[in-house]
Write a structure and sequence with these properties.
The protein is mainly alpha-helical and about 160 residues long. It has one domain. The protein is built from seven helices and three strands. Strand 2 and strand 3 form a beta hairpin. Helix 1 crosses helix 4 and helix 5 packs antiparallel against helix 7. The radius of gyration is 16 Å and the shape is flat. The two termini are about 25 Å apart. The protein binds iron/sulfur cluster (2 copies). The site of one iron/sulfur cluster has 13 residues, from helix 1, helix 4 and helix 7.
């Protein structure tokens, strides 16, 4: 039986509050910010800075506006955030994947990410960067390596092209 197409806003409401992977440092280390967005974001407590030595501005992820269950500045979030649709979200909107199936993937990814974040001390770092730092320090054992690999596969499922 074909699944029904859903409005993108409904899919976001059904999935994103349970996920947050594109805000909390699980998927990305930074979030792009347009130059004209910098001042309003600073007024809301965020800290846009130049990426590397380029003029492009970013805010670091985990984003300080991420509450754990949504965005504290949702109505004024950067355009890059407002326009982002991960692969899983698009597949649910197209009716190719059910909300229940997507929630299963998101639930497992979030549980693994939260656990790994505690184990590698990534509270203020992007999770992938934190795991890589621990690997360079020789502090990644076989179990952590396997969990990071499982999370990587789930993140590809959520946001891979
Ligand atoms: S990764 Fe996808 S489902 Fe998760 S919060 Fe971002 S857009 Fe929503
Ligand atoms: S501004 Fe909001 S939507 Fe954008 S990364 Fe931060 S918490 Fe997520």
């Amino acid at each position: 039986m074909a699944m029904t197409r859903l409005p993108a806003a409904d899919v976001g409401a059904a999935l994103c509050a349970r996920c947050g992977a594109c805000c909390d440092g699980t998927l990305f280390d930074v979030v792009p910010v347009a130059p004209e967005e910098a001042a309003p974001l600073r007024a809301r407590g965020l800290d846009p800075f130049p990426r590397d030595h380029e003029a492009d501005l970013v805010v670091a992820a985990p984003c300080t506006a991420h509450t754990g269950a949504g965005c504290a500045i949702y109505a004024e979030r950067p355009g890059a955030c407002a326009s982002y649709r991960c692969r899983l979200l698009r597949e649910v909107a197209d009716g190719a994947v059910s909300v229940g199936q997507a929630r299963e993937v998101i639930g497992r990814a979030r549980a693994l990410a939260d656990d790994l974040r505690c184990r590698v001390g990534a509270a203020h770092l992007g999770l992938r960067r934190a795991v890589e730092l621990r690997r360079l320090e020789g502090a990644v054992d076989a179990e952590l390596f396997a969990d990071a690999a499982e999370l990587g596969a789930l993140l590809d499922r959520i946001a891979g092209d």
